[in-house]
Amino acid sequence: MKVDRQEQEEARRERIARAAFELFARSGLEATSAQDIARAAFVSRTNLYRYFPSKVHMLLAHFDKAVQASRDDAIERLRAGASPQQVWENVMTRMADLGVRYRHLVGAVGQAVLGAGPEPAGSAAQGQLGLGDRLMGAGNGMRTALTLAALVEPVLLAMQSQGRLRPDANVATLSALLVDACLLALLHGGHRDQREVLRDWQDRFSLLMYGALAPVPGTGEGLRASQD
């Protein structure tokens, strides 16, 4: 009985997050009201506040699930024998596509993740669904940042095991830096299409990866190793 109850709770939570994201994608975060979300998710407004204290939390909950699915797919590809570079390009292309398609939501995700920190005391009890201080104080922002880093890390570990990254390279730190570079590029790049996003990311990644890539034999340089 308890398991059934937990499953029902999780299913309702996912339904709210999915309904909220669909509304955000159509109308934007600010233009979507709590009542709109409650109606689309077939729950009362009271239940809405029970599961999520803010619209940003709803957005990040759906985003986390999508990132986790991408991570599972990346790990499966690596296990099937795909090269880390192929998997990396697939992940980056998918993220760039989402970044362009939902560019009006990138600001909320990016600021919540890059500004992730402890929630202000008592803020969850306020039941507010506006952005305000919730944006920078959203506790889920830290979890989302870790989820994003966990998406990148398996690819870097595979590169390291193949000798493409220096053995002493700190993969966890590098993963976090690459994620920050992705988000900052989306927030401030003003990209018009996926190709522009990928070009911007490549420039940033080349700088970040320069010291981490293992030297190419005969050149003493590692900058091109990730592109072979």
From TrEMBL:
DNA-binding interval(s): 33-52
Keyword terms: DNA-binding, Transcription, Transcription regulation
PROSITE patterns from the UniProt entry: HTH_TETR_1 (PS01081), HTH_TETR_2 (PS50977)
Alphabetical list of InterPro entries matching this protein: DNA-bd_HTH_TetR-type_CS, Homeodomain-like_sf, HTH-type_TetR-like_transc_reg, HTH_TetR
Any coiled-coil regions, as ranges: none
Residue ranges of domain HTH tetR-type in the record: 10-70
Any Pfam family hit: TetR_N
Protein's recorded name: TetR family transcriptional regulator
Organism for this UniProt entry: Deinococcus aerophilus
High-level lineage: Bacteria, Thermotogati, Deinococcota, Deinococci, Deinococcales
